[in-house]
Amino acid sequence: MFAIVYCLTYQHDFTLVLLAAVLCLVSNLGTILFLRSAGRSNGVPRWIWLSVAGAAGGFGIWSTHFVAMLAYDPGIVVGYDRDLTLISLGAAFASTFVAGLAAVSLPPSQANIAAGLVFGVGVAAMHFVGMAGLQVPGSIAWDKHLVIAALIISVAMATWGFTLTKNWKGSNWSILAAASALSLGIVLMHFTAMGALTIIEGGANAIEPQALSKPFLLVTILVVSISMLASGISASIIAFRAAKQASASETRFELLLQGVTDYAIYMLDPSGVVTNWNTGAERAKGYSAADIVGQNFARFYSAGDQQNGLPQRALESALANGRFEAEGLRFRKDGSSFWAHVVIQPVYDDNHHLIGYVKITRDITQAKIDGDRIKEVSRNLDLALENMSQGISMFDRNERLILANARYSQLFGFPESFIRPGLTYSEIVRSGYQIVFGDGDAADTRATDHYRRHMATMRSGQRTLVHQTTSGRSILATFNVLADGGWVTTFEDITERLAREEKIAFMAKHDALTGLPNRPTFNDYLSHQLTIAKRLSTKVAVIGIDLDKFKEINDQMGHVAGDFVLSTLAARLNGILRDEELVARLGGDEFAAVKRFNDGAELDDFVARLEATLMEKMDFEGHHIVPGASVGVALYPDAGENAETLLANADLAMYRAKHEVGRNVCFYEESMDEVSRDRRRLARDLWVAIERDQMYLHYQVQKSVATGKTTGYEVLLRWNHPERGNIPPVDFIPIAEECGAIVPIGEWVLREACKEAVGWKDDIKIAVNISPIQIAHANIAELVRTVLQETGLPASRLELEITESSIIVDKSKALVAMRALKQQGVAIAIDDFGTGYSSLETLRSFPFDKIKLDRSFMNEVETSQEAKAVIRSILALGRGLSIPVLAEGVETLSQLELLTSEGCDEAQGYYFGRPARMEQQSVTLNTAA
Known about the structure:
eight-stranded mixed beta barrel, five-stranded antiparallel beta sheet, 29 strands, 19% strand
């Protein structure tokens, strides 16, 4: 059982399995119907029906077997022996014919068993003979138990199926049940037998050249199916003609005595009165002979037909033409109607005098329904062909057109009535080019080339070909060559699809916003240029570009402005490129460029063009924007021999340019590596500086300008490195922010400062700087609450200093954090005011407790009127907003006097005292604490 389930589940194409099952049911249903007709006939008609049943049923069962075999995929290439395949087909024909003969000829008690035995054994024989023709690169082993089981299933189900026919006297449901039982038996037998099959790969066996392939079998089944259909139609025509000849020759009354029941046969006198009536007429129309003899046959017509004289005209036509034949509605005694096929033929005596008419009526209601259904299907198929989005054409083996839909003409621009059956393909092609190019050599040459290319492609086995029309459209032609040498071609307009594919391919290699090459494309191009440079001994420049003011543009003007800057800059950079030059966007505001060169002047020119473009002004909604950029250049082979190294060194040079005032372009030097390595060493040491007690705090006093009273101390961090000694904060704080160590260091500073300040008297405040990284990556409000609880310092004595850049990074998050701090009672001061954005919007968004004026203004106040003006304006701003202002960097008495005269609130600087440890400050301790 496992073998059967495994075979069905993993080694069969379910689509073909389903097709095989449907084909099996239809074939068996046809076989049963033909045998029922044979069982109800005698003589030659019976043999005809038996032959039709044997041919149609046998081929249908054989087709079921091989469609199922084509669904079988053991994972290796298989073929089919031609001779054994044909023998298996013969077995199917013979078994179906003999089984049918037994079913309709033997007594009922023996017929079903004999027919089931012959049919079951024959179907099994067909299967195993066909399987014997299976050719594989190896050997085949059989499970004899499953083989026996398959044979038993086949015979048992066949016997049951023939029993369900009820000796051809049952209803249509019994016929359907019988066909279903036969089909189920065939399917069960097939998969049981397939489960018994084991293919052992290896060995000397090979698929013979003449072995039938799966595609050949599919085409063969199609051809034979068409042939069988044609044979069935021919047999039907022959039977119909035989029936007509028999009815024409039997013109006398003796015909009525033969007890024909399938036809209503009766005689009319010359005026149309019924003179006799057979059993078939009584059965078909419900009248007994006593009811109808002596009545005019017009009563079988509708009232409308009678009024229009249709019955009389039928007699006149029969008399004039020797025969009248028609189809139409006729009515029974109970008023019900049926669709009838009517034949009226005049009858003459020996002297050729008209003595009456013989009228034969057959109920063809079901045939009419079937015919109408076929017409409807054909009409639907025609509609489907004409409404397909694809064009389709079919040619015979002589290259003549059989059919084509309207879409075919539309795609190639043919006139509406031009394409018609019978045209050769070469004529169609030549006419198509003549429509576009007119009569002449150009059209003939193009048509000949097109025809040869099309035919060569198709005959070579290639399935597809793309035509480019003169209108720029791309038409995909897909070929399907038929077994008889003809072919079917479908045509699809793939212009838009190709455009989408090209767009997707472009997007995969380019940045979506700017259209510049992306990082993978840049890396591929750089690697390619390095390969060429190595071979030709030339040089390659890798250039890193980072915009200087892009973050400010995004923060102040929005991302729309940022996108505008990137797109505009990309277009300008693309416009200055020459041979062997490439600019790519690596991400964000980061760009990179590559140039292969021989002469340094070429590189200088390229860098100059880049720099000029990066500094060029652009206008956005009335704003003049100069993005500016820092540029780093690394040269192959001096700065590295591979792409990764060159990119890294170009970045080092770019960062050097960013941090050097007045220098936009910087070339890589080996010393930059040492600086980078030194920064990494310091970053590593920073993570352990607190644990090793290398950090300590200095405090700088803050004084009231008006009274000189100490108002607080600002905490300043110091680092005593064990090897380098004291490292200035300006050197290690940026590194700590880059590597993230500022978060634990900032927490340590806050906790140590609060521990220190809790012992001071007079409510002196402690001012602690908060890094932008702490606001962005730590829950600063929760940290402050925890520290204040641990140290016991009142929140009113803690002042946190925040730079405006801390807010700009993520304004909404920063404002939420500051509001949470204010709710605790902590004071917030804005530090370094006047050097950053100095935005009134920032001051308006949050009620700061203090503004700290940057020390740079105090350095210039004694020599610069502009510095004095800035100080005055900031002090006036503070008074207007009721925010006290503290000036940093006060070092002289004259500076203090200026602050006093201008009404500054507080000050700090060397004039009041240098930063020092707290034990060196003259602060009064709260001894009670």
